Amino acid sequence: MTSAPAGRSGRVVWQLALTLWVGGVWAAHFVLLPALTHIGLAPLLVDDVSNLVRPIMLGFAAVCVVLQLLVLVGKRGAGFWRDVRGQLLLTVLVAVGCFFAVRFLPQAMFLSLFCYLVVAFAGLMLIFQPRPDEER
After folding, report:
1. Which of 3, 41, 48, 90 is found 20 to 30 A from 77 (Cα to Cα)?
2. What does each C-alpha distance from 36 to 42, 51, 57, 84, 103 come to in angstroms?
3. What is the pLDDT of residue 79?
4. How many CB atoms lie within 10 A of CB 33?
């Protein structure tokens, strides 16, 4: 069995992590929760599912983003934050941190939903960026 070249393994990690966390965040918010509402579950039950699923998805997204940052740092070095991909990944990490930090504030529902949507749309923007191993 031969080992994959370092560039290929980074490409696989980047693409798999991106697919899992962005797809999961979008599927949870834009597919699962509306489907639960559509089938007629009580609004409080849908809120309970939402309060359970969103933190799990954002925790998973944070782990995947850290993996992606490691791949990006491996390709770009210390100047990774000058790259659009690095800025988007750092934005996601800040939004995830804010999501967990604002849970105990009076406006927690609004602020946590805002942080969740920032993560979702930053992920969507990241999908349209080339992989770190691709030349521009």
Report:
1. 3
2. 9, 14, 17, 36, 23
3. 85
4. 18
